[in-house]
Amino acid sequence: MAAIEQAVLDSDVVVVLVGRDWPTAPVAGRDTWLDDPDDPLRVTVRIALTSGRRLVPVVLDGASYPRGACLPDDVAGLARLQSVALSGDSSLDEVLVLVRRLLAG
Question: How far apart (Å, rounded) are the C-alpha atoms in residues 44 and 26?
Fold first, then answer.
């Protein structure tokens, strides 16, 4: 987990990709990544939130963006962030929205 923490702390922005099965995708030995506080994705989001790193959620292909009540307390702040939507049919304008968010300081 130290490597994940260092990678997040060394980053200006952290992008979290939210797919259709994102909150419910099974992970080996657990029901979902949300069930394990040491899951690498959950650790990444938690560190980004607590360290003040910019976190940009990107919702893919019409996935539902999670609500805070659906997330564990340590990553519930993710639900309060404005997301960017992209799909396989994304226009250049949609991609530019993401690029602008990534470049914004």
Answer: 18
Query: Tokens 């060394």 correspond to what residue?
Result: 10
Helix (H, G, I), strand (E, B) or coil at 35: helix
Tokens 């992008």 — which residue? 15
Per-residue model confidence (pLDDT) at position 105: 65
Range of the domain at 64: 2-103
List the beta bridge partners of residue 25: none
Instruction: Identify any residues that bridge with 17 across adjacent strands, giving them in sequence order.
Output: 58
Task: Label residue 68 by pLDDT band (50, 70, 90).
Answer: confident
Q: At what angle do helices 40-51 and 2-9 cross, to 10 degrees?
A: 40
Q: Which amino acid is at 51?
A: S
How many structural domains is the chain composed of? 1
CB-based contacts of 2, cutoff 8 Å, min separation 6: none
